[in-house]
Amino acid sequence: xxxxxxxxxxxxxxxxxxxxxxxxxxxxxxxxxxxxxxxxxxxxxxxxxxxxxxxxxxxxxxxxxxxxxxxxxxxxxxxxxxxxxxxxxxxxxxxxxxxxxxxx
Length: 104
What we know:
Elements: H1 3-10, H2 25-31, E1 44-45, E2 52-53, E3 59-61, H3 71-77, E4 82-84, H4 85-103
Antiparallel strand pairs: 1-2, 3-4
């Protein structure tokens, strides 16, 4: 133990430590090179209902109802396979569950 730490402990002073920055899930997604950064995202319409998706965090892969597509490729090539959160919850996830049940 260093002399500074020993003297701080003797005097009952709190030991100064560096705070580690915690990453949110949004920060984590923005760091991954294969993902599109939220600042680079262009608003697109949902392929299932036509609702405008303002943020990349509101888009989801609509497979099995449409061909699979990443948000990054939808931003470059045009949206043919991304849906909004509402359609993901009400249409896509039930379709995926039904596909799994049929496969079993």
